[in-house]
UniProtKB/TrEMBL annotation:
Keyword field: Kinase, Transferase
Domain Protein kinase, first and last residues per copy: 1-226
Protein known as: Protein kinase
Lineage: Bacteria, Bacillati, Bacillota, Bacilli, Bacillales
DNA-binding as UniProt keyword: no
The keyword Transmembrane helix is assigned to this record: no
One Pfam entry name: Pkinase
Single GO MF annotation: kinase activity
InterPro entries for this protein: Kinase-like_dom_sf, Prot_kinase_dom
Length: 226
């Protein structure tokens, strides 16, 4: 192991080196204090990785025990995390961008599309982070009343319904394909709502330019006001 790559509430990841292939790998360990649930989640993650085969997703390498502690070893995928883009590079994502990225992530996992656990994980690691990238609390930290995400974020009703279904606060999606279909409908409608006012604005500009051209032509030919 070379260094700690990241820490979460349930586990710690380390950056390591596969000495046989001379390639970097990631080792994931559960926190012993989290008990059997954390190990079950890690085993489930290992099982899911074994079912995947995509260049943009880490590949399962090995499951090993170091002492009494289990480790999941996977390939390392180079790239910038959402946290880096938002907190270090200052990127901001609105609801359309967030829905589009979430849809792209769901398209990567068709082979496990019936696993509701995956739907929740994909949403929590993408859409939640993205949507909160534009959030600014209007209250002071000391006097702020704790609000739900529905109250804190200004979102379209249709997107709120999709999110609540992804989080299983309403009737959950039966698989990722159902969620992808609703996200696609939302994005199509969002584009329509964007382009209609844009078209009206463009037509308004065109009409104004036409009116100016007609007026100028009439003035030049002496027909203005006739």
């Amino acid at each position: 192991m070379l260094e700690v790559g990241g820490e979460g509430s349930y586990g710690i990841t380390y950056l390591g080196l596969d000495q046989f292939e001379n390639r970097p790998v990631v080792l994931k360990q559960v926190r012993p204090s989290k008990g059997s649930l954390a190990r079950q989640l890690l085993e489930r993650e290992a099982s899911i990785l074994q079912s995947l085969n995509h260049p943009q997703l880490p590949a399962f390498k090995e499951w090993m025990m170091i002492g009494r502690h289990p480790f999941l070893i996977m390939s390392m995928v180079e790239g910038t995390t959402l946290e880096d883009l938002i907190f270090e590079q200052g990127q901001r994502y609105g609801e359309v961008d967030s829905a589009q990225i979430t849809l792209q992530l769901l398209e990567l996992v068709p082979s496990i599309s019936k696993d509701s656990f995956i739907l929740i994980c994909v949403f929590q690691t993408s859409c939640c982070i993205l949507l909160y990238s534009t959030f600014e609390s209007p209250h002071s930290a000391t006097n702020a009343k704790e609000l739900s995400w529905q109250e804190e974020l200004t979102l379209s009703p249709s997107l709120i319904e999709i999110i609540e279904r992804l989080l299983q606060l309403r009737k959950p999606y039966s698989d990722a394909l159902d969620a992808m279909e609703d996200l696609g409908v939302f994005l199509s409608q969002a584009r329509i709502n964007y382009f209609i006012p844009l078209r009206i604005a463009i037509e308004g500009i065109t009409a104004a330019r036409l009116d100016i051209t007609v007026s100028a032509t009439a003035a030049a030919t002496g027909t203005l006001g006739q």
